[in-house]
């Protein structure tokens, strides 16, 4: 039996301001830093340690993992950062306040944008300042890989190769793995590895900075999962 630890980043400044974030590189709030440190302390208290860590290329997730590894005195382990673990790209919603968006478009539409796996938020255009193609960290992506908007199914399509080609081989080599990512990239990952239905994934809400333990069998199917307390 292998234990895989998944964790969503701590509260970000825009989580706190209730704004759609997506690929915007927003920092952790003070609360977010504290949540991440506490998550590290909790993992330490339960005797966890890791051989390898994976995270996105967004600082709220990178810093959360860093805090955790610092608390475990494990800052030295290899950490791979990949755009494939980024939050879902929220298109033209990025930067908007979620409550104001509900007032403008209605609760039903906003719920669909947020939780329907097949609903696409309004797209940006490549001349938009929010276009990731303007950001150096994405310079090796093809134009097809750079999103203008994304639904959860598309997020799953880009998370999946990272799971299959990078994380799975590490688990098969018996390495102890922690993945620190985002609400929707983790939902996408779970949809794939646990074969969740659209309805199940729609109802899946992942709290910030709470270690989520997945016990896996030899085929890497989840036997059980729980949040560490
Ligand atoms: O990108 C965001 O705004 C959040 O990290 C996730 O938002 P959601 O819960 O509205 O999908």
From TrEMBL:
UniProt keyword annotation of Cell cycle present: no
GO molecular function: phosphoglycerate mutase activity
EC number: 5.4.2.11
Active site, per annotation: 9, 87
Pfam families named in the record: His_Phos_1 (PF00300)
Sorted UniProt keywords: Gluconeogenesis, Glycolysis, Isomerase
Residues with site note (Transition state stabilizer): 182
Reactions catalysed according to its record: (2R)-2-phosphoglycerate = (2R)-3-phosphoglycerate
SMART domains hit by this protein: PGAM
InterPro entries per record: His_Pase_superF_clade-1, His_PPase_superfam, PG/BPGM_mutase_AS, Phosphogly_mut1
Annotated TM spans: none
Binding site for substrate: 8-15, 21-22, 60, 87-90, 98, 114-115, 183-184
Biological or metabolic pathway of the protein: Carbohydrate degradation; glycolysis; pyruvate from D-glyceraldehyde 3-phosphate: step 3/5
Domain of life: Bacteria
CDD domains hit by this protein: HP_PGM_like
GO biological process: gluconeogenesis; glycolytic process
Family note: Belongs to the phosphoglycerate mutase family. BPG-dependent PGAM subfamily.
NCBIfam families from the UniProt entry: pgm_1, PRK14115.1
Name of the protein in its database record: 2,3-bisphosphoglycerate-dependent phosphoglycerate mutase
Species in which this protein is naturally found: Mucilaginibacter limnophilus
């Amino acid at each position: 039996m292998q234990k895989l630890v998944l964790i969503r980043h701590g509260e970000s400044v825009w989580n706190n301001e209730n704004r759609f974030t997506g690929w915007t590189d927003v920092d952790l709030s003070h609360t977010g830093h504290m949540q991440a440190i506490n998550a590290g302390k909790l993992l330490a208290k339960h005797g966890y340690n890791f051989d390898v860590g994976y995270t996105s290329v967004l600082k709220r997730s990178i810093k959360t993992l860093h805090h955790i590894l610092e608390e475990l005195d494990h800052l030295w382990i290899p950490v791979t950062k990949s755009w494939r673990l980024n939050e879902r790209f929220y298109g033209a919603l990025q930067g908007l306040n979620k409550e104001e968006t509900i007032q403008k478009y209605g609760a039903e539409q906003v719920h669909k944008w947020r939780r329907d796996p097949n609903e696409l938020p309004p797209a940006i255009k490549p001349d938009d300042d929010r276009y990731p193609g303007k950001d150096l960290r994405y310079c090796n992506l093809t134009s097809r890989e750079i999103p203008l908007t994304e639904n959860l199914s598309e997020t799953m399509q880009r998370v999946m190769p990272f799971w299959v080609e990078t994380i799975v081989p590490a688990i098969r080599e018996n390495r102890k793995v922690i993945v620190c990512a985002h609400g929707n990239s983790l939902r996408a990952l779970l949809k794939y590895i646990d074969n969740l239905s659209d309805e199940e994934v729609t109802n899946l809400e992942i709290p910030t900075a709470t270690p989520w333990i997945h016990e896996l069998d030899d085929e890497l199917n989840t036997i059980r999962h729980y949040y560490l307390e």
